[in-house]
Amino acid sequence: MGCSLPHASLRGDGATSFDADASRVCGDGEVRCGAACVSTSTSLSHCGACDRPCAPSNAVARCEAGACGIDRCEQGFGDCDGNASNGCETRLDTAMNCGACGSRCEGSTPACDPATRMCGTGCPGAQSNCSGTCVDTQTDPAHCGACARPCSLPNAVAGCAAGACSIARCADGFGDCNANPADGCETALGTSANCGRCGDSCTGATPVCDGATRACASGCSDGSSRCGTLCIDTRINAAHCGACNRACMLASATPRCAMSTCLIDVCAAGFLDCDSTAANGCEVNARSSLLHCGACNRRCDPPNAVATCANGICTYSMCDAGYGDCDGNPTNGCEIDVRSNLLHCGGCGRACNPSNATPSCVGGVCGYTACAPGFADCDGNRANGCEVDTRSSPAHCGVCRRSCARNNATTACRSSMCALVSCDPSYENCDANEANGCEASLRDDVAHCGACGNRCPTRTNATSTCAAGACSFVCAPAFGDCNMMDGDGCEQSLRDVAHCGACNRACNLPHATAGCPAGACTVASCEMGFGNCDSMAANGCEADFATNANHCGRCGTRCTSGQTCVRGVCAP
Question: Are 465 and 511 members of one domain?
Fold first, then answer.
């Protein structure tokens, strides 16, 4: 008796493969991929669609809303281009990306320690290389804690201690009353609340702090002027210089007042007063000025290059066309003409050394003037010269692009002539023609099965085959070798009720005459008094019309409640 399952077919191994309609049994948000229900929104093996794996390189993958992404990079790698499709593509132990994306090592010989993923400075002790200059970032106010991180604090001369900005001294008349170096010397010491020093407050009905003496008084001392409730010496007070409320405001500088005139006390970090004019403050940014790079009147003009001043160090942004900085020294600019230099042809360190040829450098391109005897330029790249020995090269035997490669064979080029050395395992040169190599596969060629000329015989209702050097055959659809005799091939039709779909699979259906029109058992006709009312072949004609109250006399005739089916008729 055959088997039948709803929406499924049985395989020979007993497993069930679902038909196309079976996807409806998966849960919400799931689809059927093969034999499994998966969520393509989160599955790493089926991200966004069945069989679409999510496995970015050097990364722990994440599938979210059907899109493949990166959960985190593996140690030592970074996603520097922001493109998840190529994973974490960048190593973080190079001078261009040291420890993090875009973290570039500076200096004349930049390097990244692969163990610590930190830049090597080349500077002594604990000093750092800041654009070619070794500085102590623990104490230098212009590079405090890191290169190019200047300290600039209000009303104070800045210092640097343990890599953090500190106050070296407060400007005259100001104090650091909150003990916070971040806002500098924030408190004026000429007020009645802080008179002379932090926390000293004046008392009385009209408390006054004499700005000249920075002492509490009932009036103002000689030389001081009353500015609101304050006594101010306008000859020296930077907030009231020459008159009340006339503050000294100088560009990029901490001001002071002397003889009622605003002067420069100290320039801000990185700025200089190169014209000796107090009115315009410290007018030069010595970190970027080409005329005053790092110091007044220190001109930055490296040869053959576009000059730039970076953090007070003269360097360049790019070389002039045709020149290169090959010694790594920015002070002499781009000293090499890379258009004709054999050691630096087209770029620094790009030496012209073509193989088996006389070198040349013309217009920054390496080339050669002549090949050595027995050699040829087969890749068309003049920079690597005449790279092929045509006397022994199997790919260029005698001349360029004359290949000795032959099918399934080992070949050689000897004295510029091709030779077949041996056939690959299980292959032979059965036609004795070296031009097509060892053309016959003794493993699967039905004309040369196991040996040259051994042709596999034809079989009835079958296709001859050769596998592992032995002849066999494959039955045509709907035929089988049921007697297991090779001589008569596939003698049995598998549309026979005794061999329905497979050898010896007989169709035996209850109360029915079976048929096998397409390799599967069917009900051809029912016995008298029986019917195939459920349309299933597996249980034959299951309904007895004489007694079945659901199919009384014929399929679909159902007896009412209280009735029974007697001889095919519903009766009370």
Answer: no
Pair 343, 337: CB distance under 8 Å:
no
Is 521 a domain residue?
yes
If one counts the domains in the chain, the total is 2
Cβ pair 288, 317 in contact under 8 A = no
DSSP reduced 3-state for 383: helix
Say whether 23 sits in a helix, a strand or coil.
helix
In terms of domains, do 488 and 520 share one?
Answer: no
**3-class secondary structure, 183:** helix
d(CA 497, CA 36): 35
Q: Which of 532, 495, 496 is nearest to 511 (CA)?
A: 532
Position 540 in a domain = yes
Which residues are bridge partners to 368 per DSSP? 359
User: Is residue 552 in some structural domain?
Assistant: yes
Residue 445 has which token pair? 């060629």
Assess whether 511 and 572 both reside in one domain: yes
Tell me which long-range contacts 265-269 makes (C-beta under 8 A, separation of at least 24).
Answer: 265/157, 265/171, 265/172, 265/238, 266/157, 268/150, 268/152, 269/141, 269/142, 269/150, 269/151, 269/152, 269/158
Q: Which pair of tokens denotes residue 521?
A: 């058992």
* 8-20 pLDDT tens trace: 333 332 222 334 4
- Beta pairing partners, 357: 371
Whether residue 568 sits in one domain with residue 513: yes
Residue 340 token pair: 């004709």
CB 357 within 8 A of CB 368: yes
pLDDT tens, 45-91?
Answer: 899 889 889 988 888 989 998 899 999 998 889 999 888 888 898 88
The single-letter DSSP state of residue 484 is -
- Cβ burial of 468 (10 Å; 0-12, 13-18, 19+) is exposed
Q: Is 537 part of any domain?
A: yes
Residue 330 carries which DSSP code?
G
User: In angstroms, rounded to a whole number, what is the distance separating the alpha carbons of residues 302 and 312?
Assistant: 14
Domain with 539, as residue range(s), is: 507-572
CA distance 282 to 261: 16
Pairwise CA distance, residues 434 & 388, whole Å? 24
